[in-house]
User: Fold Transposase from Angiostrongylus costaricensis.
Amino acid sequence: MFANEALKVLNHYRAKRYSSNLTEVQKRGMREVRELIRLETLRLSISDKGGEFAVIAHQLDVEITKKHLEDASLYRPSSGKEFKSKYRKLSHDWAKMVRAAGLKPSLN
Assistant:
């Protein structure tokens, strides 16, 4: 359901035209950052703590991620059955929130 709603919003805004409020220098800077991301020199992501965006050297991000994944108290392999169970719970909770907000539960 969430994916359907997200896709609906994405498609709605993808069709809209916009005019940039960036200067030429800012646009060039954005192109340079995108190129560094494409070359895997930089990594751009959303922080898991506050939702701000984070820019980090790609190699440092890989090293930090590997270190986190080594921590067995935080991460462990999951079975298909466990994944399906968590997926169903998340879908159920999402549907409950959608109903509470008075939104349509799906696009179908």
Q: What stands out?
A: The chain has four helices and two strands. The two ends are 10 Å apart (CA to CA).
